[in-house]
Give the backbone structure.
Amino acid sequence: MNDIVILGAGHAAHALISAITKSTSSPRITLVGAERHVPYNRPPLSKKYLLGEVSNDDLILRSPAQYAKLGIVTVLEDAAISINPASKEVRLHSGRSIGYTNLVIATGSRARSLPASLDQSNERVYSLRGLADALALREKIVASQNIVILGGGYIGLEVAASCVSLGKSVTIVEAAPRLLARVAEPALSDKILRLHQTNGVSVHLGRTAIAIRERGAGCATELDDGTVISSDFVLSAIGSVPNSELARAAGLEVEDGIVVDERCATSNPSIFAIGDCASFVFGGRRIRLESIQNANDQANVVAAVLGGGKARYNPVPWFWSDQYDARLQSVGISHGADASIPVEVGNAFALWHHRDGEVIALDTINCPRQHMLARKRFGSGGIRLTELEKSGYVL
Ligand SMILES: Cc1cc2nc3c(=O)[nH]c(=O)nc-3n(C[C@H](O)[C@H](O)[C@H](O)COP(=O)(O)OP(=O)(O)OC[C@H]3O[C@@H](n4cnc5c(N)ncnc54)[C@H](O)[C@@H]3O)c2cc1C
């Protein structure tokens, strides 16, 4: 294999290195990361890490010594600042240039910022994306009693559950009329709303923050209906944006994320993009997925393609989230469903989404077996609605 440079030392990079080193001995790989850490596991940052149940060392996916043993060159705390596709070189913040034969962009995404005019809190608004954020957030949560979370997406909801588990009072403010509006159908949103309300979380739906002001040692968040909520601090969890600026500046096609084909190749054949920053066509529309499944599976495709194989990315998207004692799992994408059928037994809940007589997605709470079976079936021919109806909605 020729020289591979990977930009971004996160999950996708880790998965790519694992896949390449499994099939190739002594590959020539340079891993460039903006953070000071080797790739680490992000999902616990909003869950067990905030609860103090997981340490920094537990998060590390492979130690620096293991990278050295594999012959991988790691360049950390030195962000790439430009790509020159003509000379096949990447320039780093330190001024250093690195040449490549193939470049893989795995720069992930970052937390969406609040409009600057809204935040007058004097640094009392936090966000969560990386380990440094999680450490600062954990310290702040421990020292606080009342917390306002802007955004009722997965990260906001997971942090809310962690804060409640630590005995804190939490208020969630969500601009959409329901929680998880971007990714879930209304029946799942309702379930999750009840889960949080039962755990004592106050939820304001269809409301936006119009100002966050410093008040005493904490802050006051004013909503668009005039409500003012006092808290020790605010977590902004209003979504993420792909780190695609480098690609755009290098002339690669970008549409929300970096546009890739089924091989995860960008509009330049020597440059690939994987993970949160990549945008690809699924079910007839261009999407980005922010999930471990997507990072791993795209990494496997690029490893195969770089090794001369004919792999194509044709995912069975799946995702999980832990909130309180509930494990949410989703497989498939429910967007465009004709209808969704809820099935509830005790604390277990399943929501089957179908289109044209075919099951296209399943959201579950505390139904790991159904989730796993659906994942298998989606990967091997799918599930007809008639079969599901006959079986009483149990696989
Ligand atoms: C708090 C949290 C909880 C999550 N929970 C779940 C979950 O429960 N289940 C799930 O499936 N997914 C979850 N995710 C999403 C999952 O972690 C991501 O989808 C996954 O990490 C994507 O991998 P990636 O390599 O694309 O990006 P990342 O893992 O984010 O890595 C990208 C890396 O690139 C670096 N970088 C950016 N720009 C540059 C540059 N110019 N030069 C060099 N380096 C650069 C970044 O600093 C970062 O280290 C969660 C994410 C977060 C933040």
Notes: Residues 325-390 form a domain with the Enolase-like; domain 1 fold (CATH 3.30.390.30). Residues 292-306 form the longest helix (15 residues). The radius of gyration is 22 Å. Residues 82 and 367 are 46 Å apart (CA to CA).
